[in-house]
Amino acid sequence: MKPVVHLLTVLLLAISVSVQAQESFIVTRINGVVTNNKTGTQLKAGDVLQPSDKVTFDSFDSYVISIGQNMGRYMIKLHEPPAPETIQQLSAMVKDIAVPTKRRSLMAERYRPDETTVSDLRSYFGNDKFTIIGDNIAVPINPQSYPIDENKFVVFYYRVNNNPVSKKIGYENTTLFIERDKLVNTNAGVITQNEIPSVAVYLYERNTKTSEEITKFNLAFVDKETVTNEFMTIIPILVKQKMGKDEIKKYLIEYFYDFYGATDSRSIKAFVDELVDTAIK
C-alpha cells in the first residue's frame, strides 16, 4: 500500500501547486516602482495580477504585497539579484516569484492587547523588528520590573553614519515615550529612512555608571495614513468573502505582523477596531 499512498500524496501536492499557480493576486502595497508589462502601467493598490502576468521592478529591492483568492498573503519579489549587465532580469512572471508568507508566530507570541503594563521589555520589543504606527508611542511599564527614575532609566543605543548614538528615553511616572523625532535627529546626523537598524536597549544606572542590555532589534516607523489606505484596500476584499467584523480585525492584525513585524498590541488593536467599525456599519 505504501507506493499507492506515496503516489496519492504526490498527486495532491501537484494539484495544490497547480491551484495556487492559477489564482489571481490583489495588490495591497507596492514598495518602489513595479510595472505590469501587459498594460505598461505602474501597479497600484487594488490592481489584480494574473499568474501569467509579467512585471518589471525598478530595483531588486522593490516588491509587491498581495492577497490571493484563497485569502493567503503573498510577497511578489525577485529572488536573486540580476547581474549588472542584464537589467532585463528585473522582469519576471508573477507565478514564478509569488511567495506565500510563512505566517510567522509573531502574533501568537507577541499580541497581548489585555496587558496593561509591560513587565518584560525583551519580550515586548523582541529581537527582530518592532514597528510603531505613527511617530510616537507610550509604553506603560511595570514599576516593579523597571523602577525608572532620574538615576535609573532606559537608553537606546544605535549608530548613525557609523557613529555611536545614545538616547535617553523620555518617561513620566511609569510610562516610556518613544518619539521618532528625538531618535532620528542626532549629533551624528539625521536618519532619513523609516527604520533604525540594530537598536540596543539598555537599562542604565547613573550613580554606578553601569548598564544592562535588555534586547536589540530593528525599530521602524510607518505612516498611519499609509497603513489606513492599505487596510482600506483590504477590507472590501474580506467583506466580499463574507467575513464578520471580528474575523476581519484578526486578519488585518495578522497581515500587519506578517509584513511590518511586531508592534504594540494595544495600539494595533485600537487602530484596527476604529478602522473596521467605521468602515463597516
Can you put this structure into words, describing what you see?
With 281 residues, this protein is of the alpha+beta class. Helices cover 31% and strands 34% of the residues. It contains 8 helices and 19 strands. The protein has helices spanning 2-22, 94-97, 106-110, 121-125, 180-184, 224-240, 245-260, 265-279, and strands at 25-31, 34-36, 41-42, 48-49, 54-57, 63-68, 73-76, 91-93, 98-100, 129-133, 136-140, 152-160, 163-168, 170-172, 175-179, 185-186, 189-190, 195-205, 210-222. It has a 5-stranded antiparallel sheet with strand order 4-1-6-7-9. α7 crosses α8 (265-279). The longest helix is centred in the N-terminal third of the chain and has 21 residues, at 2-22. The chain is globular. Residues 1-21 have low confidence and may be disordered.
Q: In this structure, how is the largest beta sheet organized?
A: 5 strands, antiparallel
- Report the order of strands and helices: HEEEEEEEEHEHHEEEEEEHEEEEHHH
Summarize the amount of helix as a percent range: 25-40%
Radius of gyration: 22 Å
Low-confidence stretches: 1-21
Tally the beta strands: 19
Shape summary: globular
Mean pLDDT: 89
What percent of residues are in strands?
25-35%
**Which structural class do you get from the secondary structure elements?**
alpha+beta
Helix count, DSSP H or I runs of 4 or more residues:
8
Strand order of the biggest β-sheet: 4-1-6-7-9
